[in-house]
Amino acid sequence: MDDFGLPDLTDVDPARLEADIREKLEGRRALLEAIASSQAPTTVENTLLPFELEAQRLEEAVDVLHTFAASVGGDEWHAVEARLNPLIVEHEDDVYLDSRLYDRFKALGSAELGPETAWCVSEHLKAFRAHGCHLDAVAQERLRTINREAADLTTEFGQLALKAQLAGSVPLTEEEAEGLSESQKAGLAADAESNPELAKGKPCLVVLRLPTQQPVQSALARADVRERIFEASTSRGDGSDPATDTRRIVLALARLRAEKAQILGYSTYAQYVAAQETAGSTRAIHSLLEPMIEPAQRNAEAEHEALETYAEAPVAPSDWLYFRDALAREQFQLDNEALAPYLELTNVVERGVFYAANRLYGLTFSARPDLHGYAEGVKIWEVRREDGALAGLFLGDYFARTGKRGGAWIHTIRQASRRGGGCVVVCNNLNVTRPPEGEPALLTWDEVETAFHEFGHALHSLLSDVEWPSAAGANVPRDFVEYPSQVNEIWARHPEVLANYARHFATGEPMPEDLAASLSAADGFGAGFQMSEMLQAVFLDQAWHDRTPADLPESPDDVEEFEKATLERLGIASPWIPPRYRSCYFNHVFSGGYSAGYYSYLWSEALDADTADWFRTVAAKDGDGGLNREAGAKMAAEVLSRGNSRNPLEGFERLLGRPVDTRALLRRKRLL
């Protein structure tokens, strides 16, 4: 490890890392036994401090494992992950079901402590109760069994979902690729070259992304090709390919989670999850979401009618993106192909994402080509605060590769705290199609916004300033974790930021004013579609997890009907817009830690929309839209630096001076 705390990621061997994690598990187990069996009076120094520091050591090794399993992939890494995940879950049960440790933390909870330490102790006590430490031995043993089985199943689901993305790839001839730009064709050609058995001799290969709608559908001119890709996407995991059928896992996980919730004293798993988050209850979640259904459907129907009028023909679900973009070109002169030359990846990151972070938070970024990531193409930057102090290292892993899971995400390899020391090492992942050697990586507008979004998560780590490791960075409730990242998206369109990064990759010329204006003019275009697909996914997640075991389907063949009945009952089903994720490839929910928590994207967006209004109005100076150091300093002080060192909602309310006003979200989504 160098001075920055960056492991030698070029020399990580699966077997050695597995042995290291097993050793750290045993080391932590021995330490916690010593704490639990100690007869000395409980203190912060002899209980909380070693508890936190040993957890940090283990977590850093596990984070490296998850980095390689998700971002590199392959059978060997997946096998290690499958062996270790149940052990890690079992270890957490050993920790939080130990009544002796629980008693020591209760003793700390009644002591005179500083506010950060008191909150940290209260969060650990909450975790003890959430694990069932207060229950009898029979109930605890059943919970252990459920957690072990669920750990195996979530790992299996994630690995099958990844295999299904690749197995569902669609090869295209040159004629079938009509409508794609030369850059897009070159990227698909590279995927075909990397996967010749899937390309079947054809020059282009569409490897599926995680969401239902595939970005390439927006440009493909032939309706039959769009339909073929759409069918490949929506049939993932549904049994049509027995090798990647996930329906059995969906049912088993939903049933295990429902049983777990009842053992812990909750009617359903959704109620159990909500009680651990800032929402507090499923009633609060539904109070936010259900009023959105009718106006979202109304907007989506109006959008569909407009598309069919434009197309002068019926518009199927597979056609939506194609005609949406075509209509945007006509109405707003918003042309993705015309935008692309001005959205080159390095410019977007260094002159856009980093520029906004500098203007708001005073951060500076220096490329470190001497440091190496875990895969080809991973870039590393050294990040420093305004006073020159080291904030950490930022890794950008922006390109898709075989074995890497779909979507976009953040992972933290190392987090810093005052008690735990260290240097932040944080990585953003996207899945941009890698261009041929020597060609520029040109992004879609969605990918630009995703780059800003994921960096909002990174800011949560880089600006963290807390006492305890478990409170650092994005270690906040699930329904708050997306809030900083969603706020950071607003800077992608900010005129000053856009002017700084939107430059032609070859000439350096700024984006023409009419193109830049088209982005602003089209802001909110297609909101009905976006809300419909999102709400469908949210309510599918809630449906699977807001049920008792007796209310869940029995057979894998019932999964599709369960989906259909759920959406129709709520009035959110659409013949033109499918859910953003169907159950059988809903990785967030059945593998990614968002079970019963996918609502958090919209819950957090309510905070985000209100904060965006605050930046544009209260925090703005001389018409700068809030892009100033004073506004950034307040955002950092109240939200980004605080992690989970206090109730996160307190930070939001201190920032704005009041609780959230959800009308801001309704205005953004054009639901008012």
TrEMBL record:
SUPFAM superfamilies: Metalloproteases ('zincins'), catalytic domain (SSF55486). The keyword Protease applies. Residues 173-194 are annotated as: Disordered. GO terms for biological process: proteolysis. One of its GO terms (molecular function) is carboxypeptidase activity. InterPro entries: M3A_DCP, MetalloPept_cat_dom_sf, Neurolysin/TOP_dom2, Pept_M3A_M3B, Pept_M3A_M3B_dom. Residues 223-670 form the Peptidase M3A/M3B catalytic domain. Keywords: Hydrolase, Metal-binding, Metalloprotease, Protease, Zinc. Its cofactor is Zn(2+). Binds 1 zinc ion. GO terms for cellular component: cytosol. Belongs to the peptidase M3 family. This is Peptidyl-dipeptidase Dcp. It comes from Peptidiphaga gingivicola.
